[in-house]
Amino acid sequence: MKIKNSKLKVFILSLFAVHCSLFTETAYAMHISEGILPFNWALFWSLIAVPFVAWGLYKLKKLSSVDLSFKPLVGLMAAVVFIISCMPIPVPTAGTCSHPCGTGISGILLGPAISILITAVALLIQALFLAHGGLSTWGADIVSMGVVGSFAGFLTFRLLRSMKINMAVSGFMAGLLADWATYLTTSAELASGIKGDSAFMPLFWKILIAFMPTQLPLGILEGAMTAGMVTLLYKKRPDLLVRMRVLKPEEAI
Amino acid sequence: MEIFSEYLKKDHLLSQVDARVKLGVSLFILAMVLSYKGLAFPLLILGLSLCLCIKIKMPFKAFLLRFSEPVFIALVIVLIKFLFSGKEVIFSISLPTSHFSLFTLTGHKDGLMDGLQIGSRILGAVSVVAVMGFSTPFTEFMAGLSWLKVPRGIIEISLFAYRYIFVLLEDAMVIYNAQKNRLGYSNIKRGLSSFGTLAGSLTLKAFEHSQNTTTAMLQRGYDGNIPMLKHKPFKLSEVAVSVLLIITLGVVWKI
After folding, report:
1. What's the structural domain count of chain B?
2. Residue B142 resides in a domain
3. Long-range own/partner contacts, residues B207-214 (CB < 8 A, 24 or more apart)
4. ipTM > 0.85 (yes/no)
């Protein structure tokens, strides 16, 4: 009885990958490591990221000209995203630790444009000092974590809030979808970068399946974390949420 | 997080070199490593960078922290390419037994070569950035980026973020220890709730710090722009050695 099932092969490989990850302190699957992407793909993703970062810079300039405390605030939010994305969270199904992205919450609080800028800065510091991501993969990481993650978090939260869904559930879904959307994009970037002469789609599915044991529960964890953050801000400082246009003034009472 | 400052030595051969020169050379080498088709050049760069790591007295713990993740990723990619990509089959094993097979593991020669090429590229590229990161203080690196005309907004936000990472990290540790002492991480549900509270509290702290920082900076003449480090003129010897190094590596890359 010979079953040639490629998904089974991938499942075995994913188990192996999980066991390998036990030997490392943390598994940073969301960042594309330095050197993975060949020059042309690194350049391609950087060019995709440029207009989004430029949009973030434009918004920063506009908002900081009105409020001088805005730049320090964005810098501090970048530090928060950096710290959150360095904190290991246990992933029960994988028996290892991973980390949240934090881009969902920055997207919700400051909007996608500023969130993209925050992600770019956090990624730059991580690439230089912690070898999470890299300079050559900065563009690709900005696209997956910054652009896709921030937009997914922001749009999900706004859509659910417009449907009168409560804060915790909206926050949870925003965090969850921001994380999973980042994971999907990272898989596509990774597959395009390492495929060589092979076809794109089979490799994309293999990478997606290989990281599923870590990333699926991690998305749920990120959702719970985002819900916790949003709820805490809603309870303690609703005025801040109003100032950042996350809440309408009448909702804060 | 101690990797930021405690490991940065100031008395080695690269510490006095202009950050712009180090940045320029690193970017050139990075581009060569990424565009090279083969194993030799990235491995040569890895070897040279490892020698430099020893020369600049990079601590072994920092070295392990820096390279453990890229090595793991390189291994996974070599395996993925070896087992799932390629046409030239080296072996094919039916598992669990050849009589009762649930699935077949197939190794590919061309897949393995592709995987090794990507793996060597990862290690070569990571080693270049590691040497630069360990030999250049953050503020000098930012001044180098400013000289390269990276937008001022990115540099200013990076400087704010870098300054406050340590402050917020300290706040995070205080909150985390308080939560841990009150059994905040005793099970998954409580752990998640505590982590959400921790992250929310950090955001609140960030708002408070940003207001206080702005007030303090305004009193010291802040007008919305942070002044950058002033660059000294380039040293001819540093530029000459760098150009020579790039040309030599360029020749090796071409061969």
Report:
1. 2
2. no
3. B207/A73, B207/A76, B207/A237, B207/A240, B209/A72, B209/A76, B209/B164, B209/B167, B209/B168, B210/A69, B210/A72, B210/A73, B210/A75, B210/A76, B211/A69, B213/A69, B213/A72, B213/A76, B213/B160, B213/B164, B214/A68, B214/A69, B214/A72
4. no
The answer to whether position B141 is within a domain reads: no
Is the pTM here over 0.90, yes or no? no
- The CA distance from A151 to the nearest CA of chain B, in Å, is 20
B 225-244: CB under 8 A from A = none
**Tokens representing residue A28 in the block:** 């940073």
Residues B103 and B174 in one domain: no
Residue type (1 letter), B151: P
Q: What is the tally of structural domains in chain A?
A: 1
B82: domain range?
A: 1-136+232-255
pLDDT tens per residue across span B23-77: 999 999 999 999 998 899 999 999 999 998 888 877 777 777 778 878 888 888 8
The reply to whether residue A124 touches residue B158, judged by beta carbons under 8 angstroms, is yes
- B3/A236 CB distance under 8 A: no
- Is the residue at B101 inside a domain? yes
Give pLDDT tens digits for A178-201. 999 998 998 899 888 888 777 888
CATH number at residue A135: 1.10.1760.20
